[in-house]
Amino acid sequence: MNPEVAAAMATGALRTSHADIAIAITGFCGPREGREEVGLVYIGAADADAVRVMDFHFGDIGRRNVLDQAVAAALQIMIDAAS
């Protein structure tokens, strides 16, 4: 779980699809194990021009809530990219 993984996943998804943009999500939803920051999520977005990775710190709000927030953020990134 790191920004490089999110970038590689998004790049790979774009390369193997016929899409104009690809999104990838990686992160740690919990429960806490070791030093991982619960709620830290990286979202990679790739298109023909660039690959961007954003980090989100949702906090220890529960696995389901972290997943929901990550999906909502990814969808917003796609909407913004399409606009």
Outline the secondary-structure elements.
Elements lengths: L2 H13 L5 E7 L12 E8 L3 E7 L5 H20 L1
Antiparallel strand pairs: 1-2, 2-3
Structure report:
By secondary structure, the protein is α+β, with helices and mostly antiparallel strands. The protein has a single domain, classed as Maf protein, CATH 3.90.950. Helices cover 40% and strands 27% of the residues. It contains 2 helices and 3 strands, in the order αβββα. Strands 1-2-3 form a 3-stranded antiparallel β-sheet. The longest helix has 20 residues. The protein starts with a helix and ends with a helix.
- The CATH architecture comes to Alpha-Beta Complex
- Give average pLDDT, whole number: 94
Percentage of residues in strands = 25-35%
Between the first and last Cα atoms, what is the distance in angstroms? 29 Å
The total beta strand count reads: 3
Q: Strand sequence of the main sheet, in spatial order?
A: 1-2-3
Task: Fill in the keyword field for this structure.
alpha+beta; 2 helices; Maf protein; globular; 83 residues
What can be said about this structure in brief?
With 83 residues, the protein is α+β, with helices and mostly antiparallel strands. The chain contains 2 helices and 3 strands, in the order αβββα.
